[in-house]
Each structure stands twice: as C-alpha cells, then as structure tokens.
Amino acid sequence: MKGYDKYERTYFMPPECTYDWVKKDHIDTPPIWCSVDLRDGNQALIEPMSLDEKLAFFQMLVEIGFKEIEVGFPAASETEYNFMRALIERNMIPDDVTVQVLTQAREHIIKKTFEAVKGAPHAVIHLYNSTSVAQREQVFKKSKEQIKKIAVDGAILLKELADQTDGNFSFEYSPESFSGTEVDYAVEVCNAVLDVWQPKASNKAIINIPSTVENAMPHVFATQVEYINKHLKYRDAVTLSLHPHNDRGCGVATAELGVLAGADRIEGTLFGNGERTGNVDIITLAMNMYSHGVDPKLEFSNIPKIRKKYETFTRMHVDPRQPYSGDLVFTAFSGSHQDAIAKGMAWREEKKLYKWSVPYLPVDPVDVGRTYDSDVIRINSQSGRGGVNYVLKQNFGISIPEKMREEVGYLVKHVSDEEHKELSPQWVYEIFEEKYVNTQPYFQIKECHFKQIDGIMAEATITHGGQSRIVDALGNGRLDAVSNIIKDYFGVSYELSVYEEHALSQGSSSKAMSYVGITCDDKMYWGAGIDDDIIKSSINALVVAVNQLPAIKADESIQDERLVEMKNYIQANYKNITLEDLAEHFHLSEPYVSKYMKEKSGKTFGEIVQNIRMKKARTLLKNGNMAVENIALSVGYQSVEHFNRTFKKKYNMTPVEYRNS
Ligand SMILES: CC(=O)SCCNC(=O)CCNC(=O)[C@H](O)C(C)(C)COP(=O)(O)OP(=O)(O)OC[C@H]1O[C@@H](n2cnc3c(N)ncnc32)[C@H](O)[C@@H]1OP(=O)(O)O
Ligand SMILES: CC(C)C(=O)C(=O)O
C-alpha cells in the first residue's frame, strides 16, 4: 500500500525492560474501576449529554457499582459546571463513591474547577498536561524542563486551592499523550508532581498513564507500565492507574497486560465509548475476568438494560459484534457451532452442571441478561440439524427423533437458502408443521376404532379421491393394526421403523406429539402428529409418513380417479360452484385443490369452470333462440356484460356474432 513509508514508530521502550508480567496468565483481583463515561466518553459525543442525561447516567454508574466516577470537565461548559454543582447540592453522591473532575494545568481553568467542586464530600482533582515529543515540539513549543514546570506549577496550585476550598480532595496527574513520550521522562514528570503532593498511604495520589493515542502493541505498553511501576516514587502512597484508548483495537489487551505489569486502577467507559475509536470498554474487561471465575465487583447481570439507557443518553449504537453486549455475540448461525452448543446445553442439563463449559459460548448468556430462546441459535442457510432441532425444542417443546433431524435440518435450511433470509423460530415451526403435521395428504384416516381380538383389530375410515371407505386389519398393537390397513388398502409395503412420542405443553394444556418413521427401499419417510389423544396423534404421524411414499404419490390410479371425480362434480354444479365448495366436498383445503388441479390437469379451477360454462353457452346459442341475457344467467354469469366480455376474449367475437356465424 502506497504511503506506508510516511509512518514510523512513535513509542519508546523504557531504558530497562523487564518482563515479569509475562509470567502471569490471569488477573486474580479486579483493579479499581473508574468510569470516565461522563468526561472522556461525553467529550467524544456528537451531541454531549444534557444535565438530566448526565444525572441519569451517573445514577446508572452508581447502580453498576462504580466507586470512582470522573464526572466531567467543569471548566469546559455551563452544563459541565452545573452538573458538578447539582451532584453536590442535591446530595447525589453516595458515601462510598468518589467523583473526579479533569482540569488542564492552567490557572484560570484550575480555579474554575475548584469553584465547581466546593463542598464535595470527596473529589479527585485530575490534572493533565501533554508530555509527548510531538506535543512538546508542535503544540507547546517548549523544552522538557518547561513542560515539567507546567505540571509542577499546576500541582502546586491544586495543593494550594485544595487547602483553601471547602471539601475533601485528592489528586490525580496524567502525563497526557504518554504513548508518544520517552518513558523515563514521563516518570521524571510524574515524580516531580508527586514531590509537590507528598502523598501518604492514607490519602493516595493517582498517577494515570494514558495511551492517549494507542500507537504500540500491548506488550510494549505492559513493559512501559512495569518500568513505571518500579520507578515511581512514593509507590505505597500512589495508585497506579491506566487510561487505555483503542486506536489499534488493542485497548482491552493493553489494559489487561498493564494490570499484569502492576497497575492498580483502570479508567474506561461502558461499551468503549470515547475519543476516536474509544476508551477501553470496561464491560469487556470486567466480563473477561468474570469468565475466568473472578468477581469483577461490577454488576453486569442485565447488559441489555444498561445498553438501552446508554444508547438513549449518548445517541451512540452498540455494534452487534461488541463483546458481551452486541446483539449477535451469543448467536450461532452456522451448523457445526449450533450442533455443539445444543449438545453442550443438553449435556449441562443432563449432568446438572454448575460449572460452565458449553462450546462456543464464553459465558452463559443468561448471566448477562440474554435468553436461550432468541439469542443463542438462529437459523439461516448456514445452519444445520442441531440448530433447527434446538430452535424447535427451545421455542415449541418439539423434540424430534435423532434420525429425523437431518431431513428436517436440510428442509429448513433449503427454505432459508431459497428465500435468502434468516428464519424466525415461528417460520421454522411452520416449515416443520407444513411438511410433517399438516401436509396436504392424498389420503386421510378420519376415524379409527379398536377391538381386542387376538391382537388388536383396527377399523379405520380411509378417505381419498373424494370417497370414504371403512377398512379393517389386525396388528400386534394399535399403530401396527392401522399400518396394516394402509398396506392392504394401497398395496404398499414399508417397515414401521421409528415411533416416538412426548407431551407437548402449550400454555396450560398439554397435547401429545408423535413421530413416525417408516422405511421403504432403504429410505426413511417421516410424519408427525399433534393431538389431545395420543392414538390420534400417532395415526396422523403414520398417515403423513405414508403419504410421503413415492408409491403413494405416484399412484396415478388414485390421482386420476380423484381428478375425474372432481371434474364430474364441477360439471354437475358448474352454474354456481366455488373453489371452497369443491374443497369442502373432497375434505381438502382450497390451496391444495387449486394446486392439485393445475398440476394434474394443466388448467386452473377457474379455467375448468369457465370452459364448461362456455361449452354450454355455445350449445344454447346455436340451438334455439334463448336471449343472450338468459343464456348468460343460466350458465352461471352474474351479468350479461361479464358473459359478453369473457366470450369475446375467448373466441374473439361476441355471443351474437357467434350465433349468426
Ligand atoms: C486527551 C484528553 O482527552 S484531554 C481532555 C480534553 N478535553 C477537552 O478539551 C474538553 C473540554 N475542554 C474545553 O472545553 C476547552 O478546551 C477549555 C474550556 C478547557 C479550554 O479552552 P481554551 O481556553 O479555548 O483553550 P484550548 O483548550 O483550546 O487550549 C489552548 C491553550 O491551552 C494550552 N493547553 C492545552 N491543554 C493544556 C493543559 N493540559 N495544560 C496547560 N495548557 C494547556 C494550549 O497549549 C493552548 O495554549 P496557547 O493558547 O498558549 O497556545
Ligand atoms: C486526560 C487524559 C487522561 C486523557 O483523557 C487521555 O490521555 O486520553
């Protein structure tokens, strides 16, 4: 890529590099968390938060459990100033929470800041000035000594004003733009500031190391932090804090390695809001610890609720891939992931495990306020049988037999592929239902009675081709007897291979769900049935399965017989027949009859009716002198105009022209 040679590395390795942090593999106690949402997060918003929004956000941060909150930059604006005053005057700061405010190292800004914090029960005054090579040269045009003096002068003024101002104050100093600063020089400036403040273990100062613009790999930052940790004066009286940004996308790694390197405290924001690519995301950091079995001491058990408020207050949007918080972070669309998750969840339930080990899910989604129903497995063309089965089970209590799952999986994903869409759980259910439960059958068994005679005798009413017949057969069980009826009646052979059933809870009532798999020529055919009655549900399942057999589907004698019967019925009732009448007469649904007629005769129901009417009309026109109006009505048209129009369209002449031709 052209232009790469315009850049060079702008960070500095410390004079001595030690790598003690490398030997640690996890963080066992959470750092002190400081939220900077209301300051660094707020200053990065297109529209900074209003006073009321800041108050509500502050309340949310307190509820999450933050004990240190940088509430703003009071010298920046009236809103910022008034917010600080409101917190103090309305007594909104809980006893165990410390608020913090930021100030430049400029006299009037520091003075304004102290006016804002007057009367605070406990506040941290956070002083910063830039120390990087670039800022020394380009912005301040000052030497190292002069830059250090800005910090020291600021520190002196903080101390003086703190002594003169009503309230309880501690101090924080940040060598801003540390990432482009020589590490030993940054330490020198920090130590000079500490010399002014003379911190005590009972009232610690905070030294905050920002990766103001992240410009190095996280291990470089950790090595820098380790050096600072070892070279800061008054170390027992100093809280070493980090303030990572995310310009290289490594904010979280930078923070974690920095903590391993000796940092005690982290400044960050919810969802990583902040300047440019953001501050480090505290939710991710906290949840990373949580997923290692460490209590982060922040409450993220309902992230969706926090997110909703955050999005309202900041007008920002959380990315669907944002760790722990995004819409899609617990979702598997792909088959093998879904399969493993579904099996892992089943394993967990079966073994009654408390410890979490479900594949592909770093934490239990329920722990952060998500659900298993809609968050974990979603169906598209990348999905597989494990996922489809999970969705049916989780959402509808349908537990399909192991051997049936592959067919159902392919059936569902095929629809998604064709439609090019994600399928909602309801859609998945409808696909399943249409094929296995409510399929339009070639035959049905509407009624069945059983007698115990040397085995089971079943007597079933089989309906097909518009006719119903009562047939009986013996079997060694009820389903076997019904199966024998079907075999005898249609002359088909198959093996009844799988029968499974379970209760299906729907609201307060419970139904029986049955599955039947039959084998014919080494291939399995499936059906399912749902009914209050277990026998009925199993017969329905069997009927659907048999209806899938190619021998039944291709049985032209059944087809032809029914088609002829339908045509005869139309012929006999052509004057006022509707599709609804026809479907009802043959105990079938309208869409099925409509599709069936088109497929089998090449004409729609409407075309067939029209042909019959026209044929009758032509005969009446040629034989006798019945008025055209009367002919129209007698063959079933509502009006003569309609008849004339249809006739002309079909024969390219009017009925009168036809009569005279
Ligand atoms: C990395 C960070 O996030 S740091 C925090 C940044 N946040 C903000 O800036 C948000 C709030 N800031 C503001 O509202 C404004 O900047 C104010 C009100 C504080 C100050 O505004 P202004 O007086 O117009 O000054 P501005 O911020 O533009 O800075 C300009 C001057 O201050 C100096 N300056 C900037 N930062 C500092 C600092 N930390 N310490 C000392 N001097 C500073 C600049 O060198 C410049 O000096 P010059 O005029 O002599 O060249
Ligand atoms: C003021 C400092 C800590 C800052 O916000 C930064 O450097 O990013």
TrEMBL record:
<keyword id="KW-0808">Transferase</keyword>
<dbReference type="InterPro" id="IPR009057">
    <property type="entry name" value="Homeodomain-like_sf"/>
</dbReference>
<feature type="region of interest" description="Regulatory domain">
    <location>
        <begin position="439"/>
        <end position="661"/>
    </location>
</feature>
<dbReference type="InterPro" id="IPR013709">
    <property type="entry name" value="2-isopropylmalate_synth_dimer"/>
</dbReference>
<keyword id="KW-0432">Leucine biosynthesis</keyword>
<dbReference type="InterPro" id="IPR054692">
    <property type="entry name" value="LeuA-like_post-cat"/>
</dbReference>
<dbReference type="InterPro" id="IPR018062">
    <property type="entry name" value="HTH_AraC-typ_CS"/>
</dbReference>
<keyword id="KW-0963">Cytoplasm</keyword>
<comment type="similarity">
    <text>Belongs to the alpha-IPM synthase/homocitrate synthase family. LeuA type 2 subfamily.</text>
</comment>
<dbReference type="GO" id="GO:0005737">
    <property type="term" value="C:cytoplasm"/>
</dbReference>
<dbReference type="GO" id="GO:0003985">
    <property type="term" value="F:acetyl-CoA C-acetyltransferase activity"/>
</dbReference>
<comment type="subunit">
    <text>Homodimer.</text>
</comment>
<dbReference type="InterPro" id="IPR039371">
    <property type="entry name" value="LeuA_N_DRE-TIM"/>
</dbReference>
<dbReference type="InterPro" id="IPR013785">
    <property type="entry name" value="Aldolase_TIM"/>
</dbReference>
<keyword id="KW-0028">Amino-acid biosynthesis</keyword>
<feature type="domain" description="HTH araC/xylS-type">
    <location>
        <begin position="564"/>
        <end position="661"/>
    </location>
</feature>
<dbReference type="InterPro" id="IPR005668">
    <property type="entry name" value="IPM_Synthase"/>
</dbReference>
<dbReference type="InterPro" id="IPR018060">
    <property type="entry name" value="HTH_AraC"/>
</dbReference>
<feature type="binding site">
    <location>
        <position position="245"/>
    </location>
    <ligand>
        <name>Mg(2+)</name>
    </ligand>
</feature>
<dbReference type="GO" id="GO:0043565">
    <property type="term" value="F:sequence-specific DNA binding"/>
</dbReference>
<dbReference type="InterPro" id="IPR036230">
    <property type="entry name" value="LeuA_allosteric_dom_sf"/>
</dbReference>
<keyword id="KW-0012">Acyltransferase</keyword>
<comment type="pathway">
    <text>Amino-acid biosynthesis; L-leucine biosynthesis; L-leucine from 3-methyl-2-oxobutanoate: step 1/4.</text>
</comment>
<dbReference type="GO" id="GO:0003852">
    <property type="term" value="F:2-isopropylmalate synthase activity"/>
</dbReference>
<keyword id="KW-0238">DNA-binding</keyword>
<feature type="domain" description="Pyruvate carboxyltransferase">
    <location>
        <begin position="31"/>
        <end position="304"/>
    </location>
</feature>
<dbReference type="Pfam" id="PF00682">
    <property type="entry name" value="HMGL-like"/>
</dbReference>
<protein>
    <recommendedName>
        <fullName>2-isopropylmalate synthase</fullName>
        <ecNumber>2.3.3.13</ecNumber>
    </recommendedName>
</protein>
<dbReference type="InterPro" id="IPR020449">
    <property type="entry name" value="Tscrpt_reg_AraC-type_HTH"/>
</dbReference>
<keyword id="KW-0460">Magnesium</keyword>
<dbReference type="InterPro" id="IPR002034">
    <property type="entry name" value="AIPM/Hcit_synth_CS"/>
</dbReference>
<dbReference type="GO" id="GO:0009098">
    <property type="term" value="P:L-leucine biosynthetic process"/>
</dbReference>
<feature type="binding site">
    <location>
        <position position="243"/>
    </location>
    <ligand>
        <name>Mg(2+)</name>
    </ligand>
</feature>
<dbReference type="Pfam" id="PF22615">
    <property type="entry name" value="IPMS_D2"/>
</dbReference>
<keyword id="KW-0804">Transcription</keyword>
<keyword id="KW-0805">Transcription regulation</keyword>
<dbReference type="InterPro" id="IPR000891">
    <property type="entry name" value="PYR_CT"/>
</dbReference>
<keyword id="KW-0479">Metal-binding</keyword>
<dbReference type="Pfam" id="PF12833">
    <property type="entry name" value="HTH_18"/>
</dbReference>
<feature type="binding site">
    <location>
        <position position="279"/>
    </location>
    <ligand>
        <name>Mg(2+)</name>
    </ligand>
</feature>
<feature type="binding site">
    <location>
        <position position="40"/>
    </location>
    <ligand>
        <name>Mg(2+)</name>
    </ligand>
</feature>
<comment type="function">
    <text>Catalyzes the condensation of the acetyl group of acetyl-CoA with 3-methyl-2-oxobutanoate (2-ketoisovalerate) to form 3-carboxy-3-hydroxy-4-methylpentanoate (2-isopropylmalate).</text>
</comment>
